[in-house]
Amino acid sequence: MHRTNMAKLGPDGLPILRAGDNKILKPADWTPPDLARVIARA
User: Fold this and answer.
1) What DSSP letter does each residue of 1-42 carry, written as one string?
2) Are 1 and 36 in contact (CB under 8 A)?
3) pTM of this prediction?
4) Domain extents for the chain?
């Protein structure tokens, strides 16, 4: 899940924000975390 959240940062290390409401955006190549794998390891 950490990888997924860090993908939302730009090259400068800051979140990619939408103009107007400052919502954090996901990049085009963003993929959701594999929660089943995380739970299976726990």
Assistant:
1) -HHHHHTTB-TTSSB-B-TTT-PBPPPTT-----HHHHHHH-
2) no
3) 0.54
4) 1-42
Task: Spell out the residues 6+ positions from residue 29 whose beta carbon is closer than 8 angstroms to its own.
Answer: 7
- Residue pLDDT, tens place only, 8-36: 888 898 998 999 999 999 888 888 888 89
Q: Which two tokens stand for residue 11?
A: 């090259």
Q: Cα(41)–Cα(35) distance, rounded to whole angstroms?
A: 10
Q: Which residue shows structure tokens 């794998």?
A: 37
Which tokens hold the place of 5? 């959240």
